[in-house]
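Model it.
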Amino acid sequence: MAATGPAAPGRPSPNSAMRELRGDLSPGEFATAVRRAAREIGEHVSCDARYVGRVEAGEIRCPNYAYERVFRHMWPGRSLQDLGFAPREAVRRREAARRPPAPGPPGPAGVPRWPAGPHHPDEENDDVRRRTFLSGGPTALATVIGLDRPAQAAPPSWQLPRQRGPVAPPPRRVGAAEVRSVEQAVRDIRLLDDVHGADTLFELAGQSLRTAYVLLNDGEYSSATERRLQAGAGELAISVGWLAHDSNRLAEARSFYSEALATARMADDSALEAHVFCNSAFLARDAGRPREALRAAQAGQSAARHLDSDRLLSLLAMREAGGWALMRDRAGCERALGRAYTLFDRGESEADPEWMSFYGEAEIAGLEAQCWSALGDWDRAGERAGRAIALQEPHFVRNRALYTAELAHDRLGRGDLAGAGSHGFAAVHLLGGVRSARIRAMLADTAGRLRGHTAVPEVGEFLTAYDLLPAA
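Modeled.
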């Protein structure tokens, strides 16, 4: 297959090789195939139709390392040049020649602004930035979600301060670069939460959200930019709300979701509204408000009815099932579970929201386990929690810790003290790399109920490990 030919000066050359590989698939369907291939090798990419369009237009001259691994998995034996991309070394040399010695003033949320052009250094470096965080701490995290700034440079006049106080005005004009930074912050938060949980992320992500709303409320922009900025700010509010939820800051989570819902309503964005109601239903269930959970899940289904995403409707039906279960209405729960699985089995589609990448077979099994647990059907709950653990990909550490903690709880519910201790010990081991107050609270409840049974070896081993966990 011939690689893409040279471009005219100043204009990217279309990537005909990747367009040919897409074949009869739509850009959205092709993006779904890329995400599926990524999961097969334990990689995470946020591929959507827009990214596919940029690749085929030649705007992405060389993919980042994560995408390169996925593409090589999809087409073994083909080099980047075979796939229509430029050699990485050539791209680096060209960018080095064009780029000034240092980045300009930071853009929104502190992301450095680089010279405009068809290739953006962040696209090549985001995999490196992610892996830097995985071996670093809060400073590395700030870099990943766009909150760092050069230590020697004064912040621009519109940059949000880290401390509370009056906020300076944003840049006079808000454009595509600022919107991309907001959208990327959402993706980075989701990726890092999958691995590390919410506690480490919450405070820093909140700063990024404040910046997004300053841009939205005080900036100047076109109507097209406004739509993207509203959607991005709303999704960021939902992401920060989830971090608050997983950190057991339930009142704060509700406030963030209310902000996101207001944004969705003002923008007349039904997809964003459905997402808010989906998360609000989950929050209400965890807060012990089953009727509110039920109403939110049903409102989400109404908002999502015309979005052509069976997977989204499936997840919302699972949220409804959780509400019925908490109300001890087994018949209502079973009806909702049946709808959820019927919709899930219809498969993925290009209309599925990007944020739903977590909702696979492991997640639906885990959510079903929670329903049976709330209904006191411990055998079914344990069986589904075990299935969720078996199906969950290894790099989703937070969810593996969650499902394992749930299984310990379910074993205890059916009177299996040894099983509860064994799975509790496994959850403690996983929790060592995850900061989630919500999961820790689940384990604390199990540990408290097992204190009187230390004669069981598995229980003693679990309690010893649990007591050595560092303070939250």
